[in-house]
Write a structure and sequence with these properties.
- The chain is α/β, with parallel strands linked by helices and about 210 residues long.
- The chain is built from seven helices and seven strands.
- It has a seven-stranded mixed beta sheet with strand order 3-2-1-4-5-7-6, with helices on both faces.
- Strand 4, helix 6 (about 130-140) and strand 5 (about 145-150) form a beta-alpha-beta unit.
- Helix 2 (about 25-40) runs parallel beside helix 3 and helix 5 (about 100-110) packs parallel to helix 6 (about 130-140).
- It starts with a helix and ends with a strand.
Length: about 210
Amino acid sequence: MEIDDILHRIYREANLRLLYPRMVSGHQQGQLLSILTHLIAPRRALEIGTFAGYSALCIARALKPEARLDTIEIDDELEPFITKGFSSTSVGDKIKLHIGDALQIIPQLHQDGITWNMAFIDADKRLYPQYLELLLEIMPKGSYILADNTLWPGASQISLDQPPPSSRHELQSYGIALFNHLVAHDKRLESFTLPIRDGLTIIKIK
């Protein structure tokens, strides 16, 4: 089965079987991820937040033959759904799925000698600033970080001069607002935000 057919099936089954199917990247963003991956040509890529596996396959399809993708998903109940999609396509052998907390898994993989020169963040919005801090510690100059949901509804109304809010949704907005602030004011970074869906920011580590 062709990978486009697999992606269509994953998108359809996610909408039928999974909670929050809107989290699936979908065709438009998936195509953009493939193009950006092709242009960046990473030797090894990292994805934080696998969900249904749609975006991982879009990244993997654009990797060079020798390149690999590590993708991390915290929800272990999604593993059967994800692995079914990966095993159905020829690019699945380029992907290594890790189940658990990215903030714990990434340092361990790095200690084992793995480095990445492209990362895609699409996970817990409250933790975006921590993901950014961790990636900047371990990714070499010239690497790229792609961050989804950076035009998250409500983030632009958040005041970082005030204490973090208490509600989950407001904490997500706060996390995105703080992430955007850090990216904009870090002189090590160049960035540009595309208004696709609720925002995709392309970040280069200078």
